[in-house]
User: What shape does this take?
Amino acid sequence: MTDARSDEELMRAYVDGDHEAFRILFGRYAPMLMRLTVRHLKSEELAREVVQQTFFQMHAARLDFKVDRKLRPWVFTIAMNLVREHFRKKKRRKETELEDERLEQPASERGPIERRQRAELLHAAMEKLPASQREVVELHWFEERPFAEVAQIVGASEGAVRVRAHRAYKKLKDLLGEELG
Amino acid sequence: MSDPMHDPGPDPELEEWLAEAREAEAGPQPELEGLLESVEREIGQAEKKPTFWLRTRPTWVRRAIASGAALGVVGLTAALMLRADFHDYPASYMAVALGSLGALLLLSVHMALRPLHRPPMRGAARAAVVGLTLASTFALALFSPHDPGEAHGVFDHVSGCLFFGLLFGVPVYFVLRLLDRGAQATSLLAACAAGLLGNLVLQLHCPRKDPEHLMLAHFSVVLLFVAGLGLAHWLVRRLRGQR
Assistant: This one.
């Protein structure tokens, strides 16, 4: 039976000691956090570690959660910070050289491209974006978060986030220039 | 030209690519089996450690603990080990020294314990705190109100002050690491806090005013904490990277 309580009500219940509320929140958030982190880390194993750490940090920081705030940006910010920390420690921004090779397809390889290959090309192009722009595209487009919530998660104004999105889409179009025609 | 504020979205051709990519992701979900059990197991193990209880306190409580510990050390120094020339020392310079060092110490503590659910701190903000820490302690040593005619052995009591400053700075470093939940750059900011506390204690305790001694024995405390810990972390990262 699904729980009708809101995420914030569940978090409040968890802070008050209701462990079942934590499990329900896990069920709601784990799939979307896995999707988000797999997209960044390109590894399901690494994504599981980050998602596990996200829920661990949710528990550690539960007394910091303000009851009048939304839970989703709170959780997403923790997850994104852990992803950034992972890249900082690994000192890498791009996954492999293969993605750069895919991006630089010679002009002779034109013609119909499978949908999956186009998605891979797009992700390779997104790897070329500055982190601040890529985060905005991922949260706004792929996670379908409104700009106001994206601004909360990344710690910028809504105006700045909109400008980053605009620049990101422009740069993506430039990078995919040949394919887009 | 589209208006980024009102129309920051992709054009139709790019939108098609993005929609395809989003659709491609809507396939089978990544495997979550066992993940909840792993989370609960990790939480269970962590809760057996007494330090975990400290880390789960609200951020304002963690900051209060760290700030209180640092200011407690300063208070004890003032109460029990005050410099012999305190009443003759220029009051305005003492106020500037204590005020600037104290404010930077509290700022370092505040930033070191930034919670993970807040967006990341900008690199420029961290660099500013480190820069101000080094600059303020250097300036306080350089412009110390000394009597140029007064003779001192340059290396007299250097090791004593250095040891004293490092000793009294170390506890706040460890308190901050104890309270830290894994935020970015806590180690560097904790090193700044430790160096600043060491200088605060020395400012209250050491009667020397000559810039040479203050550079060698007081400013060096900050340098050793910040550069020394930075070097240690770099070496550890290199060694881990080579495995």
